[in-house]
Amino acid sequence: MSELDPLIALFEKAPPEMLAKIEELVRSTPIAEMPIVPTKGPQLDAYECEADEVFYGGSAGGGKSALTIGLALNEHQNSLLLRRYVADAEEFAEDALDFIGTRDGYNGQQKRLRYKGRTLKWGGVPEEKDKQRYKGKARDLMVFDELPDFLESQYVFITTWNRSKDPKQRCRVVATGNPPTEATGLWVIKRWGPWLDPTHSNPAKSGEIRWFINTAEGRDTEVDGPGEFDDGTGRMVRARSRTFIRAKLDDNPDLTQTDDYKRTLDALPKELRDAYRDGKFDASLKDKQHQVIPTDWIRAAQKRWEDKPPYGIPMCAIGVDGARSHDEVAIAPRYDGYYPHVITVPGKATPHGRDLAALVITHRRDQALPVIDTIETTGAQAYAHLEDQEIECYAYRGNDPAIGRSEEGQLSFYNRRAEAYWRFREALDPEQDGGSPIALPDDPELVADLTILEWTLSPRGIKITSKEDVVEMLGNRSPNKGDAVVMAWYQGARAKTHIQVWMPDERVDPRMRGKQGRRASYNRGPRRRH
User: Fold this and answer.
1) What is the pLDDT of residue 516?
2) Structural domain tally of the chain?
């Protein structure tokens, strides 16, 4: 029974004169002019939320469309409502027309609806470059429906123009959606990390408002409260507020009158059921048919991870992916199969090869082998600087010919990059003898970098998605973390091949066993002859 049923029963028994007075009272209130009235609960919380950016959702059926269209029709003068594809965005118009009950002011060709002095525009951003179509066009309400379908670069660029000429008009961004089911949507978990990342050091509650700035280095950084903060260069920038409000099917009275929609969600495959019914942001990626590295293998490696390297294991290699000024350098140390958090530094901090070489030396331990991407000029220069200092390095060039075959010995590789990623896939395989030795930190960007690749079998062997295509798929972001991690595994010592060199004494300290019971090893470096 609905909570409204007792009230409806009272109205049905009320005399006509009382109903007339109630109707007169209702018509005299502002709510009478609202084509959409938010329902009590998370939807009303999001409607009234004071945050500059609100992400509303989590599960399917939480009343996301009614929230955004209600804000556009009730509260804002100039609204932009976006879906990734414009054909899907047409649903905004149909829903809005249903709510207002007339097609007056509707222009389907221009994708515009005018209603009582308010303007609603809808559209799509199918390609990364299409964000430019919204450049310089001020909107006091920006809506991103199904946010994980968008690229981070699209969201950040378009919301730059969330503003109004009217000083009395409030401006805000409202994003709605369910957990991402593809790697390209994992940026959402990072941006709303305090609410969505289960490993976040300072978690936030649903509806709790936090404040953030974008530093001069381009880092999204949480700050203490509202106001202006130093962006790292002495320039003061205003913090913007952000929150996530979780909504479930049970919060939507329009869809809980029957069990039809719930039965539909219950019938979904597990990964989609986790995302759309249960709103799980940490377990809902669906693998593509020819995905190079299965997501479950990466999740298993993350479960093996601890906050420090296993006792006694040395740093064996250090993957180095240099960057131009607008990207980040990624440094990935490897301790046998264990990886700490990937170190990232703005590319403009290492403009020359000597700067990148100095960064490698700063983080290198135990005579670890630097594996450096030398296709970029900075990487090649860093390699030369380290060689000049008699530090042995490996020059990694992904386009060079491969030097081996798959572990089964049957398949060759299109190039060295395909071979390196396939070797890492083999290392993550849980079915190998003794299980996988790889332990990875929980990092949404790293997961995206490793799961976005697909493979095909070409006449030259296994071929994977080109780096250029990956950059475009990630919204003009380099897969630097994934590349650095894979490079670190491609070369350098491992327990499988160096255990006798590292530990000639077969006695094992109990502290030198990891989660899988593996014996740890220590790289004492080259053995000296006396």
Assistant:
1) 47
2) 3
